[in-house]
Amino acid sequence: MSPDALAGLRDYHLPEPMPWWPPAPGWWLLALGAALLALLLWLRHRRRRAQARAPLLALRELARLRERWQRDGDDTAFVRELAQLIRRYAISRWPADDAAGLTGADWRGYLAQKCADAPAPVRAALDGALGEAVTRWPYQPSPAQTSTELDPADLAESAAALLRHGAAGTTGTRA
User: Fold this and answer.
1) Contact in structure between 162 and 88 (CB atoms under 8 Å)
2) Which positions, given as ranges, span the membrane (predicted)?
């Protein structure tokens, strides 16, 4: 070999530094995954917050119903609105369940299942007058005249106990 053959070689050189933008595809995937995780966590937090607020809002609505009943004295309207309130409460408290379509004994059983860990007076009310008030009485022409058990003040107290039990966070929520 002649020394002239090596004379044409250049000295070693470092490659150009990597630009910081645009990032490599792996960083894009990581950023997308982090954004999706943040969105899912935010949606979960929002759902749990709404479920936690449901009993408090229902208690406020129950207070309005009581005031209207004391002002008007219409037992039938009170029972119907109370049944609607309990159903709306259950739908907002446990949105993953199919509570909206339940009627009669199925609806009553659903409430009993969700309140299985409730205090004894709440469970007794669901087995008695409150259970009748949410399953049967709203669909009768005049529940105040057809039932001797109907006492709107007791129903309101039972419903308030049920809702306070939900506000305490001890009802079976699905995470």
Assistant:
1) no
2) 26-43
Q: Structural domain boundaries of the chain? A: 53-167
Q: Is the pTM of this model over 0.85?
A: no
Contacts of 60 (CB under 8 A, 6+ apart): none
3-state secondary structure the chain: CCHHHCCCCCCCCCCCCCCCCCCCHHHHHHHHHHHHHHHHHHHHHHHHHHHHHHHHHHHHHHHHHHHHHHHHCCHHHHHHHHHHHHHHHHHHHCCCCCHHHCCHHHHHHHHHHHCCCCCHHHHHHHHCHHHHHHHCHHHCCCHHHHCCCCCHHHHHHHHHHHHHHHHCCCCCCCC
* Closest alpha carbon to 158 in 86, 87, 100, 94: 86
Nearest to 129 by CA among 162, 102, 92: 162
pLDDT in tens, the chain (175 residues): 566 777 777 888 888 888 888 898 999 999 999 999 999 999 999 988 888 888 999 999 999 999 999 999 888 889 899 999 999 998 888 877 778 888 888 988 898 898 888 888 888 888 888 888 888 877 777 655 555 557 888 889 999 998 988 777 644 444 3
CA 129 to chain CA mean position, Å: 26
